[in-house]
Amino acid sequence: MDIKRVLVVLPHPDDEVFPMSGTLARLIDAGARVTYVCLTLGELGRNLGNPPFANRVTLPAVRRQELEASCQVLGIEDLRLWGYHDKTIEFEPWGPLDERIQAVIREVRPDQVYTFYPGYGVHPDHNACGAAVVRAVQGLPESERPMVLCAAGFQESPGRPPDIVNDIRPVLRRKLGALHAHSSQFALLGYTEKRPEEDPAFMERVVTERFWIYRFGQ
Prior knowledge:
By secondary structure, the chain is α/β, with parallel strands linked by helices. The protein has a single domain, classed as LmbE-like (Rossmann fold, 3-Layer(aba) Sandwich), CATH 3.40.50.10320. Helices cover 37% and strands 19% of the residues. Helix 1 packs across helix 5 and helix 3 crosses helix 4. It starts with a strand and ends in a 5-residue tail after the last strand.
């Protein structure tokens, strides 16, 4: 399948890094244009850097800058920030959110849409975001529906093996660059200090990206 246009819909800055940044980098290298819709600025994220360099007032701006830096590393040129409140996506009225996602799908006309698998994204915002994407796509005529590729939590599975497993070693340095860009969130966890070749568990997490094709009506 020749992928020319890709839409990514995720709730927080940094959600792209572990589940799909390598895949997106590979798609971009192959000529695809990626539009990334980020629903919030992650202003309620628990981490403020290590040592802390942000606070509750400055964190939204910091995370926006980090996301822009991550996109630059990966080659994503079309980043859209929708400004919803962090940790409230599950409470957003379905109609307006679904219609907004449908509108960007009709505008971008993606071959593929990437999001979280509803119910298997670990975080309530992840699950609510994925559910909104599924509803939006399902509301389109079948002939207009793009393929929806869903990521799950690292140790989560929607009851079946993934449909696509990507080894992203060829673009590993760019994935690590995206990870380093989000230093306010990842430094405290030690991720920005890890050398993947020296940590097999970390290596497994970063080099393999798994996706489930959402099967409508099943």
